[in-house]
Amino acid sequence: MNRLGFHIARALRNEAAIASLSVPQAELLTAAAGKQVALVGNARALSDQRHGAAIDAADLVVRINRAPMTSAESHGTRTDWLALAVRLPLTDRKRLDPRRILWMSPKRKRLDWTTARSPGFYLHPLNDYHALAQVLGAPPSTGIMAIELLLRAPLAALTLYGFDFFASQSLSGSRSAAQVPHDFAAEAAWVRAGADPRLRIS
User: Fold this and answer.
1) How far apart are CA 6 and CA 3, in angstroms?
2) pTM above the 0.90 mark?
3) Which residues of the chain have pLDDT under 50?
4) I want to staple 187 with a disulfide (CB 3.0 to 4.6 A). Which of 16, 80, 144, 194 is the partner?
5) Per-residue DSSP letters for 169-201?
6) CA angle, corner 165, sides to 24 and 104, nearest 5?
7) CATH of the domain spanning 3-201
8) CA-to-CA distance for 36 and 53, rounded, in angstroms?
9) Which Gene3D superfamilies did the record assign (predicted)?
10) pLDDT tens profile 88-147
11) Which helix (H) or strand (E) covers residue 100, if one does?
12) How many C-beta atoms lie closer than 10 Å to residue 52's C-beta?
């Protein structure tokens, strides 16, 4: 598909055409097999911690959206995969330099050509998004979608950094929990209820 075809498919909401640019979900999950995975959220509280070395020591480092990083000591430096639901400015794209982008948002109109044609691009299926939204009773955040997706993989372990379910708000902006469409209490309860032995919250 060329750029024009992509823009036409996006305008017409041709999901099959857009999905043709994505690696299969099974291939993505296989790429995480056996790995120690660090999923780095954007909670402000992470800036007060010194988890950077542990994050960078993981086999696979996954970050979320624009992934602000206040320091290497708190956030580490690597970005292997980027779970994305917003437009990514060129400055952030260069700063993060992800090896793979996962487009998690159901809003395909936000998806740009550069992202869709990036190496290893993955498009999260709409059915998966809606299934999780139904469980939570609210639109799922990018973070909880990434957790749910990664736990489908036969990975060795998944450690969450910078996840306090909006208790300290987000480094990405100044909005309060009441100003965003997600139910963070439901997301926290979903994580705890799963009791997956591979999952750890740092």
Assistant:
1) 5
2) yes
3) none
4) 144
5) -BTT-S--GGGSS--HHHHHHHHHHH--TTEEE
6) 20
7) 3.90.1480.20
8) 14
9) Glycosyl transferase family 29 (3.90.1480.20)
10) 999 999 999 999 999 999 999 999 999 999 999 999 999 999 999 999 999 999 999 999
11) strand 100-103
12) 20
